[in-house]
Amino acid sequence: MPATIVVGLQWGDEGKGKTTDLLAESVAVVVRYQGGDNAGHTIVLGESVFKLHLVPSGVLYPHITPVIGNGVVVNPQTLLDEMAMLESRGVATGRIRVSEAAHVIMPYHVALDGAMEARLAGDEIGTTHRGIGPAYADRAWRVGLRMADLLDPRVLRSKLERVLPEKNAVLVQTHGLEPFDLDELVDRATDWGERLRPYIVDTTGLVQAALAQGRHVLLEGAQGTLLDLDHGTYPYVTSSNPVAGGACTGGGVGPLQVDEVIGVMKAYSTRVGSGPFPTELADETGRHLLEKGHEFGTTTGRRRRCGWFDAVPLRRVVAVNSATSIMLNKLDILSGLPQVRLCVAYRIDGNVVADLPASGDLLARAEPVYETFDGWEEDLGAVRRAGDLPIAARRYVDALEELAGVPISIVSVGADRTATIFRRERPRRGALAG
Ligand code: GDP
Ligand code: IMO
Ligand code: MG
Q: Which of 71, 69, 72 is nearest to 96 (CA)?
């Protein structure tokens, strides 16, 4: 039984938590492969709402091993707090495993994230201030701490002795902030290590053993393709690779062990933080999407920018992820709009452009070219069969599917696990068109 990847196709918050939770029922292991506690994945089970930042969305099933892979940057305090929250709500966390190779977000990373954003004032990325960029930068710079380092106070101290003076110099001299105390950091990090010791393992070995035993592994992405460090709208991106390829580097699977990639998108677009967003709506429709869609950040509480679905990057994001099928979330939010629009091209400096430009400046000047569809009034929350969707909603989904070039196999019409329409078979690798 091979691996399945769940990947966001837009700017994050596509509903990956719901998708992962839904599909996790039939798998043995769920692996988060990149990002950190900048993610906020929501799972709704009846009256219960779980908001997860680090722990994989499979944790709610007792049969699953939730794994935080080597590609994740871990804030140990967030992880401990999240585990305590889950335990207090009756969810067992003893099965969680964290990669010994995952990098640690240290308090100075969080401080630097905030300080660097403050210096960009007016031009900021709009990060989540969780220290994600600085932690990945230190990983690339080879001065990061890995989870395994927390388990040996001597190693920990010697690594911090090397890196801390430089961090403190930047914090104090460049940003006018307080320095961190070495002894205090060593104590804090040693305590994290002691508390997390039972969970820290070689997760690549764990994942490979599961695959060798014929167990099904699901890899859960955070953020989305348009926030990808390489394929997104740089520099307004996160500092990791949310794309499906990131599941190989960050989750410990080989490309040919993956036989299914489920792209997750919602029926319209949102974006938190700065950066170009051609279909953004500042009008009544934007307010409808914000309010009906409850588009407020799961991690930061920030109001998400809302707009029509932007299909210009769709073919490309399907291709770079090798998406075999799509789960389309939040179709119910479009009910009540007189018309529904889809952006199919941009007009930039008078020219019609069909592909996402690499230059952020060009994208910032892009005006959307729309295809307009009839809206529908009916509430979709109780629909469970594609044939029971209003004809106008079916036409919209068909148009999205045509533009994507792969089947929209699952449609979601409510936050709850049960508010789901299984529309088509999910093709696996090999059945990909083209
Ligand atoms: P993620 O980061 O991709 O996991 O998405 P978030 O959890 O940040 O945001 C998605 C929000 O939409 C959450 O509050 C979900 O509970 C909710 N949601 C997911 N699918 C649907 C749906 O089909 N309809 C509605 N109304 N809400 C949904
Ligand atoms: P999930 O997994 C939406 C955005 C931030 C900012 C940019 C960089 O819930 O979809 P960072 O803190 O990562 O350095 O911020 O990325 N961002 C997200 N937007 N959903 C997320 O996660 C995000 N994680 C980061 O708002 O624009
Ligand atoms: Mg989210």
A: 69
Q: How far is the CA of 105 from the centre of ligand 3 (A)?
A: 19
Q: Is 41 a catalytic site residue?
A: yes
Two tokens, residue 128: 């989540």
Half-sphere exposure of 112 (CA within 13 A, CB side): 24
Tell me, what's the pLDDT at 27? Answer: 97
Distances (CA, A) of 140 to 33, 135, 165: 17, 9, 19
Q: Which residues line ligand 2 (CB under 6 A)?
A: 8, 11-13, 38-41, 125-128, 130, 132-133, 222-224, 227, 238-239, 272-273, 298
Amino acid identity, position 54: L
Report pTM. 0.97
Rounded distance, CA 272 to CA 306, Å? 9
Distance 42 CA to ligand 3 centre (A): 7
The whole-number mean pLDDT for each consecutive block of 10 residues of the chain, a chain of 434 residues, reads 94 97 95 98 95 96 97 98 98 98 98 97 94 98 98 98 98 98 98 98 98 97 98 96 98 97 98 96 98 92 96 97 98 98 97 92 95 98 98 98 98 97 91 47
The amino acid present at 253, given as its one-letter code, is V
| Cβ count near 179 (within 10 Å) | 16
Distance (Å) from CA 16 to ligand 1 centroid: 8
Give the closest residue to 386 by CA, choosing from 397, 375, 376.
397
Residue type present at position 329: N
Residue 252 Cα to ligand 3 midpoint, Å, equals: 23
**Catalytic: which of 21, 37, 41, 109?**
41
Q: Is residue 12 within 8 Å of residue 221, measured between CB atoms?
A: no
| Closest-lying ligand 1 atom to the alpha carbon of residue 18 | 19
Q: Is 103 a catalytic residue?
A: no
Instruction: Please work out whether the CB of residue 32 comes within 6 Å of at least one atom of ligand 1.
Output: no
Token pair of 183 as six digits: 């002894």
C-alpha to C-alpha distance for 206 and 171, rounded to whole angstroms: 39
In the structure, ligand 3 is a single-atom ion and the residues with CB under 5 Å from it are: 13, 40, 298
Which atom number of ligand 2 is nearest to the Cα of residue 298? Answer: 9
Structural domains of the chain sorted by starting position, each given as residue range(s) with its CATH number in brackets = 3-76+203-433 (3.90.170.10), 103-198 (1.10.300.10)
